From TrEMBL:
InterPro entries named among the record's database cross-references: Carb_Metab_HTH_regulators, DeoR_HTH, Tscrpt_reg_HTH_DeoR_CS, WH-like_DNA-bd_sf, WH_DNA-bd_sf
Keywords: DNA-binding, Transcription, Transcription regulation
Signal peptide (UniProt feature, chain positions): none
Residues covered by the HTH deoR-type domain: 6-61
SMART domains: HTH_DEOR
Highest taxon of the lineage: Bacteria
Organism of provenance: Dactylosporangium darangshiense
Presence of keyword DNA-binding: yes
Protein name: HTH deoR-type domain-containing protein
C-alpha cells in the first residue's frame, strides 16, 4: 500500500514535469497532496533514477543523454546476449569500446 502511494505520487510528479517542464515544490505538494519533505524524498528518488533534475526550489525534466551515453548503454545492453553465445572476442570488443566511451565521458 505504501509503495503504491509513493508510485502514484512520483507518477503525478513526472506527469506535471512532462507537461510544464518545470515545477516548484509548492506545485508538486499541491499536485500530490504530500508534505514538502515527502516531495523532497520523492524528488531525490526520481533524480537518482535520472528522470528529473533537481533545481533550487523545484524540479525540471532530466537532460537528454548525450550520444556517447546512448552509445554506452547500447554496447552494454548487448553484452548479456553475446555472453550467452560464448563469443569472447565480441565481448572483449564491446567492453573495450565501452571503456573508451567511459574515458571520453570522464574527460568532459
Amino acid at each position: 500500500m505504501i509503495h503504491e502511494l509513493a508510485a502514484q505520487r512520483r507518477r503525478a510528479i513526472l506527469d506535471l514535469v512532462a507537461t510544464r517542464q518545470y515545477a516548484t515544490i509548492g506545485e508538486l505538494r499541491d499536485a500530490t497532496g504530500a508534505s514538502a519533505s515527502t516531495v523532497h524524498r520523492d524528488l531525490a528518488q526520481l533524480a537518482h533514477a535520472g528522470v528529473v533534475q533537481r533545481v533550487r526550489g523545484g524540479v525540471t525534466r532530466a537532460a537528454a543523454p548525450s550520444d556517447e551515453v546512448v552509445e554506452l548503454r547500447h554496447r552494454l545492453a548487448r553484452l548479456p546476449r553475446v555472453l550467452e553465445t560464448g563469443d569472447l572476442a565480441t565481448v572483449q570488443r564491446l567492453l573495450t569500446q565501452a571503456l573508451h566511451t567511459c574515458e571520453r565521458l570522464r574527460r568532459r
